Amino acid sequence: MAKLFFKYGTVFSAKSLNLIATAHNYETQGKKVLLLIPKLDTRSEGYISTRAGFKLPAEVIDIHTNILDIYNEHLKKKERIDCVLVDESQMFSVEHINQLREIVSVFNTPVICYGLRVSYNLELFEASKRLFELADKLEEIKTICWYCKKKATHNLKLVDNQPQYVGNPIDIGGLEKYVPVCYDCYIKPPITG
Ligand SMILES: [Zn+2]
Hints:
three-stranded antiparallel beta sheet; 5 helices; elongated; binds zinc ion
């Protein structure tokens, strides 16, 4: 039976790189993957890209899209789908996660979601919470703290080098805004300068 996977981590844990490697593995075996990316991720422009420079086209899902409809459109065109890979899954809606669960159960197609666990304000993203509730398999993608040698568990938001602890959980940033940290460094970041 196919499974719903949630592979979660912090920023800079190479989640998208992991996704692209998985897509590559399927494709070298002649299998087809369906790649999904949230519209909220304004950096994406229809591509899953990594800091290492890899890039793959993906279907953009907005808040009103029913992912089951997207899946069925491919089936109608007689296109096979061997696996669904979802980037930035924390930005999807709870309803989207329910739809992904249905794809696994109804079509026996594995779905692998890659995303953040908690936002910079220490709250679970709604979609990540739903994935914890519904996934068959959870896997942590690990990386180390930006400031020390411990494992990173949280995301620190920096604006002008100052930590930010409140605000909209979905707030897109790059290197200048988010760093992976352990809890101790989250609470008391050893920021200099
Ligand atoms: Zn640390």
